[in-house]
Amino acid sequence: MGTYKSWGISNIYRTARIDEGVNIGWFCEIGDFVKIGKNVRIGAFSFIPRGVTIEDNCFIGPRVTFTNDRYPPSPQEEWLPTVIKKGASIGAACTILCGVTIGEGSLIGAGSVVTKNVPAGETWCGTPARRIRRSTTPP
């Protein structure tokens, strides 16, 4: 586990793997076996449960909620992993359903609900989120 900064009261499980240079805002929940890469910024009031992986240099806005159970309550072996690839940014108050991958360098607009995979470098927004801008160059 690397050196990270938590700006206030947050619940970070002992089994969470948090790398160097991570900033965690007030009142976040970071669950069992969550993986957070280097230089990630997590806004206040975010919920990141077991099964979520956030790669290096990502931005997770305030009040972002990740899920890990598509049909709750279901047994833990039915929970689905979620991956946020390098350099992706997720705006404030987004909900990210389990089992999706948000591609490298992608941008998710504030308040969006992501229900399916987002390709690298694309901009998505809305409820449910949909593509509003294609990638013109690789991230």
How many beta strands in the DSSP annotation?
Answer: 19
Strand order of the largest sheet: 1-4-7-10-13-16-18-19
Tell me the β content: 25-35%
Determine the mean pLDDT. Answer: 95
CATH level 1 class label:
Mainly Beta
Second CATH tier, the architecture: 3 Solenoid
What structural class should be given to the helix and strand makeup?
mainly beta
Quote the distance from N terminus to C terminus: 27 Å
Radius of gyration: 14 Å
Number of helices: 0
Q: Can you summarize the main beta sheet? A: 8 strands, mixed
Number of domains: 1
Task: Quickly describe the structure.
With 139 residues, the chain is an all-beta fold. The protein has strands at residues 4-6, 11-12, 17-18, 22-24, 29-30, 35-36, 41-42, 47-48, 52-54, 59-60, 65-66, 82-84, 89-90, 95-96, 101-102, 107-108, 113-114, 123-125, 130-133. β18 (123-125) and β19 form a beta hairpin.
Walk me through the structure:
The chain has one domain: 3 Solenoid (UDP N-Acetylglucosamine Acyltransferase, domain 1), CATH 2.160.10.10. The chain is globular and about 35 Å long. It has an eight-stranded mixed beta sheet with strand order 1-4-7-10-13-16-18-19, with no helix packed on it. It has 139 residues and is mainly beta. The mean pLDDT is 95. The two termini are 27 Å apart. The chain is built from no helices and 19 strands. Helix content is 0%, strand content 32%. A hairpin with a 4-residue loop joins β18 and β19.
